[in-house]
Amino acid sequence: MTEVSKSPQKIFTVRELLKHRGKILGLKVIGGARNLSRKIPVSEINRPGLAIAGHMERFRSERIQIIGQGEYAYCLKEDQRRVLSNLQKMFSFSDIPCLIVTGGLRPLPAIKAACARAGVPLLTSSFDTSSFIRELTIFLDDQLAAVTYAHGVLVNVYGLGVLIQGDSGVGKSECALELLKRGHILIADDVIEVKRRIGYMLVGNSPKNIKHYMEVRGLGIIDVELLFGVGSIMDQSIIEMHVQLESVAPGSLANYDRTGLESREITLLDVSMPSLRLPVTPGRNLAVLIEVAALNQRLKNQGYFVAKKFNESLIKEMAKKGENI
Fold first, then answer.
1. 158-202: pLDDT as tens digits
2. Active-site residue 270, yes or no?
3. What letter does residue 126 receive in the DSSP assignment?
4. For this structure, is 190 an active site residue?
5. What distance in Å separates the CA atoms of residue 160 and residue 245, rounded to the nearest whole number?
């Protein structure tokens, strides 16, 4: 697996959240404006209902804390001194990024007092709780996702994201061009930015300065969108399959799998994906081979492994003949 580099852990703050999503999410700062530089290390959020009730076991203090209708109703009916005491215990954790009260609710005096005493930024949102959590989680997941950069070509073949890699000059871009001519879609050429999203899903896209461009030896830089149309490009794709192109001499093909029973995988950002080695020799149509490989992988994703089925049927036939001897 050829990786260009891994980006360091991104530092994202409450101030940046307000800058990028403040208006969209209806956020307003009620208190703690001096502490907006607090870090947001994870995309998950926490609804601290149990903590407000006094149960601090397994409290996820590193997450943004959300008070919705349920937590707010509990705070209203509970003795305010107890609520304040439990909030102070909760805010004794120094890594809490901020507290957000959703649904357009006004923060109660106990909430304001506890946030002010601990220096925790207090925000409100006009969004209802479920919509707010959904939009915030999606945004933070994109901002905080683990990122690496891979060298190769990323194409979408029959709806399957295929990462094509190989040594320099082996024919990756030429193979991608042939796939484009056959109606498939380019996501990135040369450098692919790969992010690990929620659910351990890898998503690839192109860095902005080279998006929709390809470098082809002998031709130079070409604009794929202008040449093949807007339907030939995509901004991003889930990566579900890896193909390694290997330049070999014609007599060395015996080293490659002929049955399809071998299952190879590569790991990228701690996520495993199926990998296929394709030997590059004169006369082989790599684009067609990758098309068939993509279709075959879709069958495997649906639980149908052709090579195994064929092998099992052969074993059964051999067993029947053995019984008849």
1. 999 999 999 888 889 999 999 999 999 999 999 999 999 988 899
2. no
3. S
4. yes
5. 18
